[in-house]
């Protein structure tokens, strides 16, 4: 299964947070096709600049976690801009668009994302 991880899922996985169910953690530990979007690194960097996330090396830790990197393309940007206005968060809209464009299953707990026509693995 090809997965795209929402930002909170990546953060929970990195922190070994019990919020992330052990079954999902086990999948992420062995799934070779689990992707982290450049939008996630962008979101983490923005939140760090606002003083909302630590540690300082968090983006580097995400990059080093072994997940596949998914760049943002103009196709993704256009698709995100054309989504119905269910979700206002630009980072989450980008993840939905990327999952749709790249035929990925989006791993999330976000109730607004779950209203889009996108394959989901709910956590």
- Largest sheet, strands/sense/barrel: 5 strands, parallel
- Counting structural domains, the number is 1
Poorly predicted residue ranges? none
**How much is the radius of gyration in Å?**
14 Å
The fold-level CATH name is Rossmann fold
Distance between the termini: 16 Å
Provide the residue-averaged pLDDT.
95
Q: How many distinct beta strands?
A: 5
Shape: globular
Task: Estimate the helix proportion, in percent.
Answer: 40-55%
Task: Report the total helices.
Answer: 6
CATH class category label: Alpha Beta
The CATH fourth-level homologous superfamily: 5'-nuclease
**Order of secondary-structure elements:** EHHEHHEHHEE
| CATH architecture level-2 label | 3-Layer(aba) Sandwich
Strand order of the largest sheet: 3-2-1-4-5
Structural class by secondary-structure content: alpha/beta
- Portion of residues in beta strands equals 5-15%
Summarize, please.
The chain is 46% helix and 14% strand. The chain has 123 residues and is α/β, with parallel strands linked by helices.
Question: What key phrases describe this protein's structure?
Answer:
6 helices, 123 residues, five-stranded parallel sheet, alpha/beta, Rossmann fold
């Amino acid at each position: 299964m090809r997965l795209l991880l929402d930002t909170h899922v990546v953060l929970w996985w990195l922190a070994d947070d019990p919020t992330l169910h052990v079954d999902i953690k086990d999948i992420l530990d062995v799934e070779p096709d689990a992707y982290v979007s450049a939008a996630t690194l962008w979101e983490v960097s923005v939140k760090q600049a606002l003083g909302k996330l630590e540690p300082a090396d968090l983006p580097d830790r995400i990059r080093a976690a072994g997940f596949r990197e998914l760049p943002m393309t103009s196709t993704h940007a256009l698709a995100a801009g054309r989504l119905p206005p269910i979700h206002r968060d630009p980072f989450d809209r980008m993840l939905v668009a990327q999952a749709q464009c790249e035929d990925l299953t989006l791993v999330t707990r976000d109730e607004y994302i779950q209203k889009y026509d996108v394959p989901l693995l709910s956590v």
